[in-house]
Sequence to fold (476 residues):
Amino acid sequence: MVRVRFAPSPTGFVHVGSLRTALYNFLFARHHGGVNILRIEDTDRTRYVEGAVENLLSTMKWAGITFDEGPQNPGKFGPYVQSEKTEEYRTRAAELVAKEKAYPCFCTSERLALVRESQQASGIPPMYDRHCRNLSKEEVEKRINAGEAHVIRLRVPIGEIVRFTDEVRGDIEFDSRTIDDQVLLKSDGYPTYHLANVIDDHAMEITHVIRGEEWVSSTPKHVLLYQAFGWTPPKFAHLPLLLNADKSKLSKRQGDVAVEDYKDKGYLPDALVNFVALLGWNPSAFEEIFTMEDLIKGFELERVNKGGAVFNKEKLDWMNSEYIRKYSPEKLLELVKPLVEKKGYEVSDDYILAVIKLMQERARTINDFVDFASYFFERPTDYEEKYKLKHWTPEAKERLKEVLPEFQALDNWTHDALEAVIRTYAEKNAISAGKLIHPIRLAVTGRGMGPGLFELLEVIGQNESTSRMAHSLEVL
RNA sequence: GGCGCGUUCAUCUAGCGGCUAGGAUACCGCCCUCUCAAGGCGGGUACACGGGUUCGAUUCCCGUACGCGCUACCA
Fold:
């Protein structure tokens, strides 16, 4: 039975890279009919952020990623929050000390800093100098009894090659002399990631550890821990990193990295999930739009790429617009309506629906429906300069002045009727219809692009449209 | 610096010894057209480099270069 876990630290927002890791775990579990587990790794009390867990939960729900076991729905392997089981980590650490696989270390952070400094100065790789590795039992006991602060470190064996097989990268090996005597239990009594992670993965019977590439270097430490405990390690799969445009690890400094940012900007969960799924993995040579079911069906660890993937926002935009086009107007209404209300526009659902139908093919995000197309909801306050220069000529103004009464007098305000008015006028005056269409678009929307003018006028309505035209003739 | 991982168009990728190296996004033309978008048609751009192995390497092996990750009592 496949059992995988997503194990984030509640330190704030959910990174899109974390979203992908969570997604791959989810897809893998579902593909194999296995169990997807959520575990909160909150062993660093200094980085804990209030509300982060709630935010995580709602983000996962938004993205459509579900968990079979976790803090919200505990299975029999709980607790699923690491800070709730510190006692066990301490017991386990003591067990390793008793087996001489780990040892107490009394070095102060000041001494550690000094050691590191001098190592770096002389060009030696900065590692713990194992100062406390061979303290006598008596001395250790004495100092502990005296209440001296200490940590527990892993006693890394000397002269061994530590190997593991990565499901996406193949065999990887490390010389144990390059592995630090890692701290397992901090002086505050909390475990480090390495200890807690190994204990929990074993306790929760995790079969596959699917996580980001940044963990490759610490995997030998984990392998050593499994050995020290006498446990069989799970399989490891390290995912390629998500990258900035400059190929560095995707970071906040260079753009949006929080899933919440994308949500707020009007991206659909389906689109973001689809997009992020394809960063590092591809089920097909031709298709690119996949439902969650498609993704589950096609997901294979073997097809995961090794190289990092640049998070290419333009492609996300394209994918998002694909989804917007695919959705029904009614479904979009549910998403657009809250935005309309937030802006304080008072319009009917039917009105919003009409706007959606005109904008659906043009919108890249849900926010476009109210931002980009704001002229459906309020009179434009500024007019696109370039377009104005080109189309708002004295001649155009004269012609608009001439046809305006016809618009005002029109008794069936439909796009057909509107088109007839404009085309007839154009024909009569031997000008192209565009000579009238462009200035009117500018007068009514302030913009140089958008849906067809007749449809647009029909939606905006006779009163509002004609009043905007009259207004423009005065101010422009 | 040390260790590890990686490298096909600008970007995401297909390719698992023999292909005119395919698709998508972006970009550029043309068509459609009231603008934009969509759609249709077309276009340019890639196997990091050097050695092997082989009848034949994008594909296998070894180097080099470059990039990235890790190098905390953070995860």
